[in-house]
Amino acid sequence: MAVPRKIAYLLLFLIALAAFGTLGYMILLNLSFLDGLYMTIITISTVGYTEVAEMTKAAQIFSIVLIITSVGTVGFVISRIGYFFKEGHLYEVWRKSKMEKDIQALDRHYIICGSGETGKYIMNAFKNRAEKFVVIDKDPETIEELKEMGYNYIMGDATHEDVLQHAGIDKAAGLVASLSKDADNVFVVLTARQMNAQLNIVARAIEPNAHTKLKRAGADHTVSPNEIGGRKMAAMLLKPSITYFMDSIIHTEDITLDLEEIQVSPQSTLCKKPLKEARISSKTGLIVLAIRKDKDERFRFNPGAEEMLDPNDKLIVIGQHEQIETLRDLAKEPPYE
Question: What's the whole-model pTM score?
Answer without folding.
Answer: 0.66
